[in-house]
Amino acid sequence: MDGKSKSAKYYKGNKSAKKKKAATDKKINARPKQKAKRAELGRKRYADKKKGKKIDNKDYDHKQKKYMSPSKNRGQAEKSRLKGSKRKKK
């Protein structure tokens, strides 16, 4: 195993899909709301590093208001995915 995720392998083998995803990502990242979000995160990281917090290799979780490993932060169940959710498809 070469350590790449399924999606990384997919996009490596499908150049047109990779190009389409890059265009979509570019549009999303150009939105004012997304720019503001990135700026906010940058300010937060800068301020916390200045205070001496050890935040290397960690992501900020907005729900729990703390830093955690990226795998834990991205692996949390969203309310829409939980059992009994009105949004969950049957």
How would you describe this structure to a colleague?
There is one protein chain. Helix 1 (6-13) packs across helix 2 (15-29). This protein has a two-stranded antiparallel sheet. The protein has helices spanning 6-13, 15-29, 32-51, 70-74, and strands spanning 59-61, 66-68. The protein is extended, with a radius of gyration of 17 Å. It is 53% helix and 7% strand. Strand 1 and strand 2 (66-68) form a beta hairpin. The chain has a domain at 28-74. The chain has four helices and two strands, in the order αααββα. 0% of the residues are buried. With 90 residues, the chain is mostly helical.
Notable characteristics:
2 strands; 90 residues; mainly alpha
Q: Give the total of beta strands.
A: 2
Main sheet: strands, sense, barrel: 2 strands, antiparallel
> What ranges have pLDDT less than 50 throughout 5 or more consecutive residues?
none
Q: Alpha-carbon distance between the termini? A: 35 Å
Instruction: State the helix count.
Output: 4
Strand order of the largest sheet: 1-2
Portion in beta strands: 5-15%
Sum up the overall morphology in one term.
extended
Order of SSEs? HHHEEH
Helix content: 40-55%
- What would the average pLDDT be, to the nearest integer? 86
> What class do helices, strands and sheet pairing give?
mainly alpha
Task: Write down the Rg.
Answer: 17 Å
